[in-house]
Specification:
This protein is mainly beta. The protein has a single domain, classed as Lipocalin (Beta Barrel). It has an 8-stranded antiparallel β-barrel. A two-stranded antiparallel ribbon has the order 11-12. A hairpin with a 4-residue loop joins strand 11 and strand 12. The longest helix has 13 residues. The chain starts with a helix and ends with a strand. This is YceI family protein.
C-alpha cells in the first residue's frame, strides 16, 4: 500500500507533463441528443474505431493541445433507419464525410484523481465545411489503469454550421435547431 501511495504521489507531481503526447483510444465515443415537435432522439458514434495522437504542452497553468480527431458522419446511428439517413443527409455526409474536432486548450486540469473534476477547454468543430470555435465543459479523471477519462458536453445548433434541421411529412415533423453533444475520450499519456 505504501508503494502504491508513493506511485500515485509521483504521478500527481509529474502531472501534467511540460510536453508530451496523449493517445486517444478507439473506444472513445460521441452522442448527440435532440428533440422534434413529437419526441426526443439520440444519435451515437458508439466507437471512434481508430487511435489518434494529441500533442500537449503546459503554458501558464493551461494545457495547450495540438491535434484533432476525424469522426465519420457515416458512423452516426440514430437507432432508427429513417432518422439516421436524415441526419447523415442534413450533415452533408456525401460532400463532407468527416466531422473534425480540433482540441486547442484545457484550463485548470491540475492534479488528476479518480473523482471527476470540472474543467473547461476550447475546441474547433468543423462540420459540413464550416468551422466554429466552442468553449466546452469537461469532467476529467484518471482510473486505476492510468487511463484519462475526458467527458465533454456542449449545446450546439444546426444553424451554427449553416444547416437546416431535418423535417418530415411535409414539415409536420420538425427537428429542433438545438442539439446536446456529449463525448467520452479515453486517453493514455505516453
Amino acid at each position: 500500500m505504501f508503494y502504491l501511495n508513493i506511485l500515485w504521489l509521483g504521478l500527481l507531481l509529474l502531472w501534467p507533463p511540460q510536453k508530451g503526447r496523449w493517445i486517444i483510444n478507439q473506444n472513445s465515443n460521441l452522442s448527440v441528443n435532440g428533440t422534434t415537435n413529437i419526441n426526443k432522439f439520440t444519435c451515437d458514434i458508439p466507437s471512434y474505431g481508430q487511435t489518434d495522437t494529441l500533442m500537449i504542452s503546459k503554458a501558464a497553468g493551461d494545457i495547450m493541445l495540438s491535434g484533432m480527431i476525424g469522426l465519420k458522419v457515416l458512423s452516426f446511428d440514430c437507432h432508427n433507419k429513417m432518422m439516421t439517413a436524415d441526419l447523415r443527409k442534413t450533415l452533408k455526409e456525401k460532400e463532407y464525410p468527416l466531422l473534425y474536432i480540433r482540441f486547442l486548450t484545457l484550463d485548470g486540469v491540475g492534479d488528476l484523481t479518480l473523482s471527476p473534476k470540472a474543467i473547461n477547454g476550447l475546441v474547433n468543430i468543423k462540420l459540413a465545411g464550416i468551422t466554429k470555435r466552442f468553449d466546452v465543459n469537461y469532467q476529467v479523471s484518471v482510473d486505476a489503469d492510468n487511463v484519462i477519462h475526458l467527458l465533454g458536453s456542449k449545446e450546439i445548433k444546426f444553424s451554427d454550421f449553416n444547416l437546416t434541421p431535418p423535417r418530415k411529412l411535409g414539415g409536420m415533423i420538425k427537428t429542433d435547431d438545438q442539439l446536446s453533444v456529449t463525448f467520452h475520450l479515453k486517453i493514455k499519456s505516453i
